[in-house]
Amino acid sequence: MGTDAILEIRDLDVTLGSSQILHGISETIDDRPLGLLGRNGMGKTTLCAAIMGLVPVSGGRIVFCGKDITTFTPEARVQAGIGYVPQGRRIFRSLSVHEHLQLVAPSNGSASWTIERIYETFPRLAERRKNLGDRLSGGEQQMLAISRAMLLNPTLLVLDEPTEGLAPAIVSDVIDLICQLSDDGMAILLVEQNIHAAFAATKRVSVMVNGVMVQSLAAGELEADAALQRKYFGLEPGQAAEEEESCL
Questions:
Q1: Which residues fall within 8 angstroms of residue 122, CB to CB, at 6 or more apart?
Q2: Among 56, 125, 195, 226, whose Cα sits 20 to 30 Å from the Cα of 16?
Q3: Domains of the chain by range and CATH?
Q4: pTM of the entire structure?
Q5: Mean pLDDT for each consecutive 10-residue tract of the chain (248 residues)?
Q6: 108-129: pLDDT as tens digits
């Protein structure tokens, strides 16, 4: 696999009201999945929103597939090939599973991801296709939120806390799916507090602290370094397994 940049973030600043949230963020995403890690309130979701054009940037630029999209609308960014799975899933309570998928289903018959393929990938959604959004479990809602983004057939998929609140078995399914999508050639930005999920799904990670990207390294290197985990996430030796369970 190559390492040509798919998304380039350069010196990105975001100020909301009187508070500067992101400070000079620079990051490159290629066809290797990237895990973005950090505690709550560090600016990870704001970065996702900036990538998607949901918050204005006060400095820097965002380049996607060689094109500067810093001033693009959210709709234009989706049309350019960026899919987004927001934190909290944001499922419509009054729409069925199938209606959710029909909203974004591609009209192009040659598209890689179709509703039929979604149902093959997630048999549980096929079984629940007539269920309304508020009649789905947390895991089923997350499957639907990811499926909705996949139907856009994006070049880059941004996932914000996709394992939040899920049972361990469902977390494993989400990790397997991320690995499958990456193997299929989709670029992935995985934003997580659950560092163990990120270690399983990605080969490289970046750590954000107070709106600053403080370190980028191989996922295996951070996984093996208890001192770094303690520094960035407050994990003590022997605490990792317990911490993973609490994240799920």
A1: 143, 147
A2: 195
A3: 7-88+148-247 (3.40.50.300)
A4: 0.88
A5: 79 96 96 93 95 96 97 96 89 92 83 92 93 89 92 95 87 90 93 93 95 96 94 66 34
A6: 767 889 999 999 999 999 999 9
